[in-house]
Every structure is written in C-alpha cells, then in structure tokens.
Automatic annotation (TrEMBL):
InterPro entries: MMPL_dom (IPR004869), Mycobact_MmpL (IPR050545), SSD (IPR000731)
UniProt name for this protein: Putative exporter
Domain SSD per the UniProt entry, residue ranges: 257-398
Gene3D superfamilies: Multidrug efflux transporter AcrB transmembrane domain (1.20.1640.10)
Subcellular location: Cell membrane
Keyword field contains Transmembrane helix: yes
Coiled-coil regions listed in the entry: 117-144
Bilayer topology: Multi-pass membrane protein
Keyword Transmembrane attached: yes
Residue intervals passing through the bilayer: 257-276, 283-303, 309-331, 359-379, 385-404, 436-455, 669-688, 695-716, 722-743, 755-774, 780-803
Length: 809
C-alpha cells in the first residue's frame, strides 16, 4: 500500500508541476495528419513524404469567379489585399518574389548557366564579335539588365536569368485566368459571352499551425472577407485547403467533447445518486475522474508537446470506465461493513478489502492490455489515445486505492432499488441453465468459426472523417478549376547523390517518351528548371571564351576604352567558380514558401540516426537518401505509369489513397492476430494467478461477447475496419474486468449489482461516443457499446453460475 500511495503522490506532484509550468502554453492539435497511416515506404521516403505533406497542408487556395475580366481583376486585387492583411496568411505570387534576393542567391552559379541561344552564339562567334555584340547591347534602348555591368559586362547572365524567371513565373503563378463555358444552348457568340472567368490566389499558413482559437478566428476573418467581396462585386469565391477540413473536424470534436463529457457526468451522477442515495459517494468517483484525466493530459502533452483533439474525444469516454473502480470499491466495502463492528466483521472487512484490491489490480492490468494494443497501430491518433487512456486508467485506479478508505465508511448501497432493476434485467437470462450455457457457448464458437472468414472488411482511409458537404464541394470545384495535377499521386525517384538523382530523373523522362500512352509534359519536376550538371560543366567551359585571358571581356573593355585590368575581378571569379554547380536543393530552399519540398535530401540526419541505433557501416546504409518528387498531370494513364515504374527500381509510383488502403488492411490483419495473442496471454495470466483450470472460464466472458458481436455485425452486413478490431481489445479488457470481479469476490448479488452498475456507466459513455459526428469515434463507440452489452449479459450469467455453485458447496 505504501508503494501505491508513493506513486500516487508522485503522479499528483508531476501533474501540478506540469500545469503550473505550462500555464498558457497548452497546445491542442487539430491536424488530420494523425489519422493518416504510414505508407509502405522506406524510412527516408516516408520522411520526405511527411515533409511534403506538411508543406502542402499549409496551402490555402482561393478561386474568384466573375463574368468579365475587368470585374475579375478588381475582385482579385481586392481579395489579395484583404488576405495579405491577415497575419496567419502569406499571399503567394511570382510577383511577390524578391528579384534582388533571387539574383543575389543565384549569381555565384551564373558561370554554369546559359540560354540555348547564348550557348550556340558563343560557340559560333569569335571573342571579338561577342565583344561587339555586348557593346551594342549596352547602347540599345531595351529594359535595364537584371545584373550590374561589373557582374555581367557581356549581358549573357541577365539574359539567362530573365528567361529563367519567366519560366518560373509561368509555372508558379497560380493566379491565372481560366475560361469555363456557361450551360447555354445559344450560338457560339453568345456562348463566348457567357464564359465565366476565374482567377486563383494561393496563400500559405504560417509554420507551426494555429491553435484552436486561432483557427476559428482566421476562419471567421476569411468568411467575413468572402461575404464582403461577394456582395461588393457580385462574384463567386471558392476555397480549398486542409485548413478548412481541420477546422471542421475540430469543431465537431469540440462539440463531441462537450456532449459526451456533460451527458456522461450527468448520467453517472444520476446512477450514483440512485444507487447510494447520498452525495458522499460522488466525491471519490469525481476525484478519480479529475485526477485521471488531468494526469493523462499532462503526460500526453509532455510526451508529444501537444494533445490532439481526437485524443480528448476518446478521453471523454473514459469516464464510464474510470468510474468502475469506485463502484466496485463502494459495493464491496459496503457489504463488508454491513456486518457491524465485531472483530469477526473487522476480519471480514480486512479480508474483503484484500480480495477487492486484488480484483481491482487484475482488472486494471487487463484493461491496460486492451488499451496498450492500440499503441501497436501505425496510426498516431490511436497511439496517443493509448497513452492517454493507460495513464488515465492508472491514475484513476491509484486514486481509488489510496483515497477509497476515507470515503467508503459512510457509504451504503441502496440494494432495494438496484436489486429491483437488476431482477428485471436478469429475468430473460433465467433460461440460461448450465446446460443451455454450454450449448450456447458451443453454438457461438461454431458461428464464429463459420463467420470469421465471411466478414466484410473496409480499409478506405476516407472513412476516418466525413467532411461537411459544402467544404467538399468547394474543394472539388477548386481542384477542377485551379489544379492541373493529381492530388495524392506522385512519382518518387531515389538516388544516392544529387547528381545521380538528376541522371535517374532524365532516364525516367527518356522512358516516358518511349512509352506511347505517357506524355513527358504531364510530369513536372524541379529538374526541368535547371540544366543538368553535365550541361552546366559544358556551359562553364564554353564561357572560357568570355572570361579567359584575351577573350571577349578583355576585348569589350578595349572597345569601351576601359583599362584592361578592370576585367580581372570577374575573370578571377570565373576561374574560382568551376565547382559551383547549381543543384535543385538550392532552388527548393530559395523558393521554400512557394515551392513544396519536391527535392529532398536527409543524408546526414539518417546517418546520425543509424549511428545512434548502433548500425555499423552507417554511411553505406544511409546512402540512398535523395528523393525527387514529380507531380503528375490529370488525365495521365496511371496503369501505364505503374507498369513503367515497376520496370525501374529507382522509381516509385505513389498513390497515397491506395497505399493507405493497403497499409490499413495490413494493420487490420496484424491487429486481429494480435487480438488472438492477447487472449492467449490473458489466459496464461489468469492461469498463473489462480492455478485452476476452472478460472479460465473468466476468459469465456469476453470471448463469447466478441463472438456474438462478430456474428451480429456479419448478419447486419457491417464492414469491419481497423477501428472495429481495435475496439475488440477493449471488449476483451472490459469483459475480463467483469469476469474477474465475479470470480474473485463471489459474493452473489453484490457482485452482480456492482457489475451491472459499472456496465451501465460504461455503456452510457460508449453509447454517447457512438453518436459522435466523427466516423472513427462513432464506429469505435458503437462496437464497444454492443460488445460491452454482450459482456454484461455473459458476466451476469457467469456470476450467477458461480453464486449457485457456492451455495451448492
């Protein structure tokens, strides 16, 4: 007992210290990433995918639709201005790129960069002719060069950067005008007149995301701006982005938390008042709930740096389980104390308390096993729920064990009311004589064997969250208007070095050109903005005619009457720049806010991780850590692409939806196998604890409940998913709880009363979770509600069997 009290105090101190230090710094995560399963990719590619996904998740697109271009331009400019005033948003446009920053960043690579026209001209002309051409450019009335004379006396670098920026602007500029024909049967002239014009504005959320309040405020500001401009210009404004889905999910989750926790607490309050007819029994249960939830919140936030709102939704349903410990404690302490203050009664109390603590501990262990199984899922959401729930249950259990003796001395169960309700519930169960029970168990096991292979399954990740129809419709409309590329589909090319990856990318494009159904222009790679390293080296050698001794730059300075030694600075810079190859990584870093991380390298980080894990030859193992993500245009022949990728070991065609389905299917199968292992381990635990084969009957309680549940769902045609299987672990844990109390205490009606009341509170919480607007929580809650209803029936039959057996003996 000293150990439990010490642990209880430590947990209380930790919780208080956490909330004291974290005051005002608590973060509630609302992202949908935790509901996305890891794809079956190697670690480096998965890391790259995570970075790309995080970057894309911060994108928000606005599409303005108007009947004429003048109206469209005015509305677009006004919307861009209003959005730029919102602190959490950055409006992106190629116009907003800092020309000076781009030129300054790329200037050192200029000796390796040439336009195609410049390459041809330098090869064909003499140094003297090149100098004359440069002299003519200086006096030509054209746009000012992008680089100063000192940096680009011959004008070739300004030409390259001008062409380069035009290409990037064309690729990056999202605010393009699109035509969309109105549904009219008039003639061509009238149809042209009715064409609707669209413009796209791309924005990006600040890094680190926003808290729940910040999200709601931003959404309110966006709604206000949209309404104002719609009224002012009579336009259509569509929007797209993960942000809107996340806010919708957070809003639904917040409502669920309020609904589940409020109704659960009220329901538990009424059950306890009806059972004990006093407010005193409310103290311990509500303290255990408060301590359990606070400790779970503190540990989860401490480990992950934030707490996901879905975790809180599941945590709200813990109320019905946490309360079980107090209910069993009160019922059995009340029974032990009812004999009066004699020494025999004192012995009875002490013996009863020992048995009760033993049952409570074993009950906790089996519940923890059920929740710990969630941690083996690859979904971060379930892992966090497992941590939260295990911590909450443990702390609630400690609260009851350490504080129960101070609150149970004045508590007496109202057996008359509870017995009346229990008797009504048990009347239909009277038909389950020992012989009927055996027949029922045999039939259930046979039905389970017949149905287990016929169970329908569903592994679609889109099931996890059902978005608001209006948000989904806007998302689809924006995708059709503004996006030329398939969402969630990529070609990922892997290499051991940047140069090798560029070469492999070129090989992929060569293969695409040789595959008739595929079109090279349908694949957008960052490498298309740059010459290959080989071409850059050739460009460097070509420019020797410009910056070598007695070459074009010297000739130009002579024509201009400038001292020849003035050219020494740029000639020296050229000579020292031989190894300065411009790689895609530099471009990605330069355009990091506008361009997603399509070029990825994590060589050093992976090597360090392998070293920390004790791998030998980590450099060799960590070499394959360069990735190039290639975007795929809509309308691509994906079957042909997949066949092509299968012939190229360095190419991986990623379809995130299909990959997620496969990942979830594999997890569902492995979770089912793990469930069988859990049953076996718990059976061994029971056998080692009681040393009797008859004690294994305890396991029949959750086993029969699970069998009945699977058969019922199969008859109803319900498709099983990963969350259903994970819920079966909790059906196992709760069924073991009831079975253990029935076997350990064996005091007839009192045990049945405690099981009945505790099951009612659990069913209340899970039933409310089953009403959640989030499909994940809904399916989880419904399976637990039905499964635990079967647990209640099976445990009452088992408790009655034990009571009759005790009377017989």
């Amino acid at each position: 007992m000293i150990v439990w009290r010490s642990l209880f105090v430590i947990c209380i101190v930790f919780t208080l210290a956490f909330f004291f230090q974290s005051s005002g710094k608590l973060v509630v995560d609302t992202s949908l990433g935790d509901l996305s399963p890891d794809l079956e990719l190697d670690q480096s590619t998965q890391d790259a995918m995570d970075g790309l996904t995080e970057n894309i998740s911060r994108n928000i697109l606005f599409v303005v639709g108007a009947d004429d271009k003048q109206q469209l331009d005015a509305a677009k400019a006004d919307l861009s201005k209003r959005l730029s005033e919102l602190k959490p948003l950055t409006v992106l446009s190629s116009d907003a790129l800092s020309l000076t920053d781009i030129i300054d960043s790329l200037a050192k690579y200029r000796f390796h960069l040439l336009t195609v026209a410049a390459q041809k001209n330098i090869k064909q002309e003499s140094a003297e002719e090149l100098a004359k051409q440069a002299q003519a450019k200086l006096f030509r009335l054209t746009n000012a060069p992008l680089m100063s004379f000192e940096k680009d006396p011959l004008g070739v670098h300004s030409e390259y950067f001008n062409e380069f920026l035009q290409k990037i602007s064309a690729d990056l500029e999202q605010a393009q005008t699109h035509g969309s024909e109105a549904s009219s049967s008039d003639d061509a002239g009238q149809n042209k007149k009715n064409k609707k014009q669209y413009a796209v504005i791309q924005t990006k959320l600040q890094k680190g995301g926003l808290g729940l309040d910040g999200q709601n405020q931003l959404l309110a500001d966006i709604n206000t701006i949209s309404k104002d401009l719609k009224d002012k210009y009579k336009i259509e404004i569509l929007r797209s982005g993960v942000f809107f889905f996340a806010v919708d999910a957070a809003s639904k989750s917040k409502k669920d938390i309020s609904f589940i926790s409020t109704i659960s607490m009220v329901g538990v309050l009424l059950v306890l008042l009806l059972t004990f007819r006093s407010v005193v029994p409310l103290i311990l249960p509500f303290l255990s709930i408060a301590f359990g939830v606070a400790f779970a919140f503190a540990v989860s936030h401490f480990i992950y740096g934030k707490i996901h709102i879905l975790t809180i939704v599941f945590g709200a349903s813990l109320i019905g389980i946490v309360i079980d410990y107090s209910i069993h404690y009160f019922f059995h302490q009340s029974q032990a104390l009812s004999n009066g203050p004699s020494s025999v009664a004192e012995d009875s109390v002490e013996h009863s308390q020992s048995r009760l603590h033993s049952a409570l501990l074993l009950s906790l262990v089996t519940s923890l096993l059920g929740y710990l199984a969630l941690y083996f899922s690859q979904l971060d959401a379930l892992k966090k729920v497992a941590v939260f729930s295990c911590c909450g249950l443990t702390m609630a259990w400690l609260s009851v064990i350490c504080l129960g003796q101070y609150s149970s001395k004045r508590i007496k169960a109202n057996n008359t009311v509870v017995n009346t309700i229990l008797d009504i519930f048990k009347r239909p169960l009277a038909v389950f004589s020992p012989r009927v029970v055996v027949i029922t168990i045999v039939l259930l096991m046979l039905s389970l064997a017949l149905n287990i292979f016929a169970v329908k399954t569903s592994d679609d990740p889109r099931f996890f969250f059902t978005p608001d129809p209006e948000i989904l419709a806007s998302e689809v409309a924006v995708s059709q208007i503004a996006s030329d590329y398939e969402p969630g589909r990529f070609v990922v090319i892997s290499g051991q070095s940047s140069e090798e990856l560029i070469g492999l990318t070129e090989s992929f494009y060569d293969k695409v050109k040789a595959t008739p159904p595929l079109i090279a222009d349908n694949f957008k790679s960052i490498t298309q903005w740059l010459p290959t390293p080989q071409q850059q080296r050739e460009n460097y050698q070509i420019q020797g005619k410009l910056y070598g001794d007695n070459q074009a730059v010297d000739a130009l300075y002579s024509l201009l009457g400038v001292e020849k030694n003035k050219a020494e600075a740029i000639k020296t810079e050229y000579a020292n720049s031989e190894k300065l190859i411009l790689e895609p990584q530099q471009l990605n870093e330069l355009f990091n806010e506008i361009l997603p991380p399509l070029w990825y390298t994590k060589k050093q980080q992976v090597e360090q991780r392998l070293v920390e894990q004790g791998h030998k030859n980590s450099k060799a193992e960590a070499g394959d850590n360069f990735r190039n993500f290639i975007l795929i245009a809509k309308g691509t022949d994906f079957e042909a692409l997949e066949k092509l990728s299968n012939t190229m070991p360095f190419v991986n065609y990623v379809n995130t939806v299909e990959s997620a389905k496969k990942s979830l299917a594999d997890q569902r199968v492995s979770a089912t196998q793990l469930l069988l292992v859990a049953y076996a381990l718990i059976a061994l635990l029971i056998l080692s604890r009681y040393r009797k084969l008859s004690a294994l009957n305890i396991v029949l309680v959750p086993l029969c409940a699970t069998a009945a549940l699977i058969v019922l769902l199969n008859v109803l045609g319900v498709s099983f998913n990963l969350f259903h299987v994970m819920a079966l672990f909790l059906v196992l844990g709760l069924g073991m709880d009831y079975g253990i109390f029935a076997y350990e205490l064996q005091d007839g009606n009192v045990t049945q009363q405690a099981i009945f009341i505790s099951a009612i509170t659990s069913l209340l919480s899970f039933g409310l979770l089953g009403l959640s607007a989030i499909p994940v929580a809904q399916s989880f809650g419904m399976i637990l509600f039905i499964g635990n209803s079967f647990n209640l029936i099976a445990s009452l039959i088992y408790a009655e069997f034990l009571a009759n057996k005790a009377i017989t003996h």
